């Protein structure tokens, strides 16, 4: 595990590193890679999320999440659902045995809110408690650290129906109560908690473009929209996610951390953006997109407010923090995880700022010259090293600590000299 750089008068910030190497057909160079090539204490692991791996969506008291509703409404590829998936709910012992055979140090998984508290609030499901206790104990018995994500997109459908989910501030209290159940029941064994997974993509997917549930979005920005407003709701949802993270982190630090000895943070999606050309406007566009994408959460966490460029471009549509909220948000993390899948080239498109109606991409005033998984330039995409086979040979980093040593910038020029570089 790498730790952040630090100044003498400040606390250290840990970067939890879970590195999954999927390196096939790389040739002699790849064959030479061993654990010994990584720093001492580097944590190798793999990860999953409850909805993607557990199955058993209607068993032992679990109730639907918004993703169950989404996939059963025909919006997934080929009508696929997560009713069975890898069936980890029934096969967790087999899965942990396989993880042990792989030699991993850690396993990052998420707890399904509608399995643990089926209605989103209120009664705790004893079968849910039993399953996660069994999984955690099985991991520990094989020498594998459990790294737990409290919320990974599977919002309880009951709360979505009741108050439109994360659009309501009621979500913050319900989420904090749910997190409290997790800390109370599992915190004696779980030492790494991630409050929310990729809160910088869920507002875009679910409340701007509409390719995630609950598909709240508006024309001309979204697809298959179920009401919504793409110009305002992504910012409201992100704000509430940030406040929910801070609320849970505060609860953990005040009530549990001293006794349980764990760490708490959150995990962001980390697409890195580079300028398509060396023109000043494109260089500025790449920095602006990184501010919108990563600084959206990191800047409040480090400095107590959104990036100045977001304040300028989004204006009154960007929520504000109260003085009490600022105190709670600022510094509310022991580590930050980055799901780093790759990078993309961007160009400036300042004409978007002239549009009366703007969504997230309009406010960022950029356009992609290469989409993250497409290659419109006559060269390998940024996320694939030269010589790699694009399909069969990819280094995939989940919760990596940096993007090519440049994470200091989107973290907001942190005076504590955070630099989780070259992970």
UniProtKB/TrEMBL annotation:
GO biological process, one term: carbohydrate metabolic process
UniProtKB keywords: Chloroplast, Disulfide bond, Glycosidase, Hydrolase, Plastid, Signal, Transit peptide
Cellular localization per UniProt: Plastid, Chloroplast
Residues of the signal peptide: 1-30
Reaction equation(s) it catalyzes: DIMBOA beta-D-glucoside + H2O = DIMBOA + D-glucose; DIBOA beta-D-glucoside + H2O = DIBOA + D-glucose
E.C. designation(s): 3.2.1.182
Superkingdom of the source species: Eukaryota
Main location: plastid
GO cellular component terms given for this protein: chloroplast
Record GO terms (molecular function): beta-glucosidase activity; DIMBOA glucoside beta-D-glucosidase activity
Keyword Transmembrane helix part of the UniProt annotation: no
UniProt keyword Hydrolase, yes or no: yes
Function text: Acts in defense of young plant parts against pests via the production of hydroxamic acids from hydroxamic acid glucosides. Enzymatic activity is highly correlated with plant growth. The preferred substrate is DIMBOA-beta-D-glucoside.
PANTHER family: 4-HYDROXY-7-METHOXY-3-OXO-3,4-DIHYDRO-2H-1,4-BENZOXAZIN-2-YL GLUCOSIDEBETA-D-GLUCOSIDASE, GLYCOSYL HYDROLASE
Family classification: Belongs to the glycosyl hydrolase 1 family.
Self-association and partners: Homo- and heterohexamers.
Protein name: 4-hydroxy-7-methoxy-3-oxo-3,4-dihydro-2H-1,4-benzoxazin-2-yl glucosidebeta-D-glucosidase
Originating species: Triticum turgidum subsp. durum (Durum wheat)
